[in-house]
Structure formats: C-alpha cells, structure tokens
Amino acid sequence: MENYNIFLSYFHQEIQTPEIVDFSSLQNIAGENLSIDVSANNSSEDYIWGIQNASSNISDEQKLKTMSEYEDFFISHLIDTDFDESIEPEILVFARRQIAVNKVIFLTWLEQLFWNYQKNELFVVKLIDLFLCFDYEEVQPQASMLAVAFKVIKSHVIQSKNLSLLGHWCNKKALSIIEDFEEPTDPWLQIKYNHLKNVIRKRCTILEK
Predict the structure, then answer these.
(1) Tens digit of pLDDT per residue, the chain (209 long)?
(2) Running DSSP on this structure, what letter comes out for residue 18?
(3) Residue 149 has what DSSP assignment?
(4) Which of 22, 64, 134, 207 is least buried, going by the fewest C-beta atoms within 10 A?
(5) CB 99 within 8 Å of CB 138
(6) Single pTM value for the model
(7) Of the candidates 34, 35, 32, 60, which has an alpha carbon nearest to the alpha carbon of residue 46?
(8) Dihedral-angle region of residue 116 (phi above 0 means left; psi in -120 to 50 means alpha; beta otherwise)
C-alpha cells in the first residue's frame, strides 16, 4: 500500500519534480538534488515509472515485475481518461515520461497488458488512443505488432480506432498492415478502410518519388 500511495502521489506531480532514487527512501531524501535529463532517449537507462533505480544491475524482468504492481491502477486511470480534453491528461504526461527514459520496458509492458486484457474493449480502445498521441517512431516496434493484433479483434469500435491509428502513421508500415486487412463488411467501416488505404498508398507513392 505504501508503494501504491507513492506512485499515486508521483502521478499527480509536475514532470519537473526531482526524481526519487528508491521507493522506500522517499521520506529520507527531502531537499536532495536528484533531477535527471528528461530528453534522454536511451532505452537502456535504469528508470521505472520515472524513478531512477539505485542498482544499475536490475534486470528487465525485475523492472516489468515492478511495473506490474501498479497494473490495476494504470488500467483504471487509462480507461477513465478523456483524450479529447484540451488539457493534456495526466496519463499522457506520464506515458511521455516513460517513453523518454525507459521506452523499451514501458512499451513491452503495454504490450503485455494488451495480451492480458484484450477482451476488454474499452481498455483496448483507450490503449489505441494513447498510441495516437505519439509519432510512429516513438512507439515502435510494439505499436506496429499490436496494430496487427488489433485488426483481428471482432469489434467495430476497435477496428475503427485501429484504422485511425494506421491513418495517423500514414507510412509504408501502415500500408502493409492495412493491405493485409480483411475488408470490413460493415458499410461505414468499409468506407473508412478504403479511404484510408487510398490516402496512405498515395502518400507512400509521393514519398518514394
């Protein structure tokens, strides 16, 4: 419960807040300068949830295990998030932070969450909403693999959202995925599918010239 409360507290902090070396030492380092470079893009950095680990030897498996302790809270917060708000939602600030300092581990964890909760339509929709907030390169390779998985889920809402994601990327990878789609039978989805496929194909043709 202590770790959960610490994470909840962190989630509501500004991104400039000095980082914490260890969950358990939160109350013992007041005033200590532990800030880190938020522009770092090295996925091997030892960060979990924006918190730098005291040990550089912690394994990826241990990192994922630590993240899984907050699984229920993260999923609940993601599902409750309105990505259409004009103010950037807290969960997006949080995700940007993780992708900046611990990209591979964070995206791997999101992929694991999908496989565990793929039957939860609302969770999958919100996960795609989260990916829609990032450029293609920022969420690879996991997002592309998940886009392939999304397309076989028999949900019109998920299919539509996934098509939006491919349209957002609008590149060769998106084209290869959408061309591998089984054309939707739903009239509205069929229109969206054919429109986006043509748009992406034309853009790829232009970029090749």
Answers:
(1) 454 444 445 444 433 332 322 323 323 323 333 222 333 333 334 444 444 444 445 677 777 777 778 888 899 999 999 998 888 899 999 999 999 988 999 999 999 999 999 999 999 999 999 999 999 999 999 999 999 999 899 899 999 999 999 999 999 999 999 999 888 999 999 999 999 999 999 999 887 76
(2) P
(3) H
(4) 207
(5) yes
(6) 0.73
(7) 60
(8) alpha
